[in-house]
Amino acid sequence: MGAEPDSPERNESSSDRWRGLVLRNRLTALVVDKTTVCRLLVNCFLESVGVETKMAESGQEALEFIGEDYDLILVDRYMNNMDGLETIRRMRERHVRSKIIGLTSGEIEIDRAAMIQAGADDCLEKPLRANALDDILAEIDRR
User: Fold this and answer.
1) How far apart are CA 32 and CA 79, in angstroms?
2) DSSP 3-state of 10
3) How crowded is residue 51: how many other Cβ atoms within 10 Å of its Cβ?
4) How many Cα atoms within 13 Å fall on the side-chain side of residue 46?
5) Is 70 helix (H, G, I), strand (E, B) or coil?
6) Which of 49, 99, 111, 132 could be 128's S-S partner, Cβ–Cβ 3.0 to 4.6 Å?
7) 10-residue mean pLDDT series, the chain (143 residues)
8) Residue 121: how many CA atoms within 13 Å on its side-chain side?
9) CA dist., res. 57 & res. 36, Å (int)
10) Which helix (H) or strand (E) holds 76?
């Protein structure tokens, strides 16, 4: 027999159970990346655990969305016009308190140091693994 219609087992998606991450709270995220495929991939990861996402293809576009509150902001290091470092600096200058995670396809240790200095909380290497954001989301969810 299956789960009752409104039971927790019924409301979890199979990807939530498979990944082991079930969020208790409604979380929101902003994904900033110039590459459409990367934005969509991160968006799929986040939506698979119930995180509502908004996507921006540039730092400038992301700054236009800053009036909204996000639990998590993911920013690519290498973007045209305004790179990830400048985007993060400007967000922090505007008193954005969201957890900001840099994303890089470059030299991870060098980029991590630069992004943290700019105001990021951490930096992850691209392409992201399916569970790369689980610990970060679980930490945000516990707040």
Assistant:
1) 9
2) helix
3) 22
4) 24
5) coil
6) 132
7) 40 44 92 92 90 96 93 95 96 96 93 97 90 91 89
8) 13
9) 8
10) strand 72-76
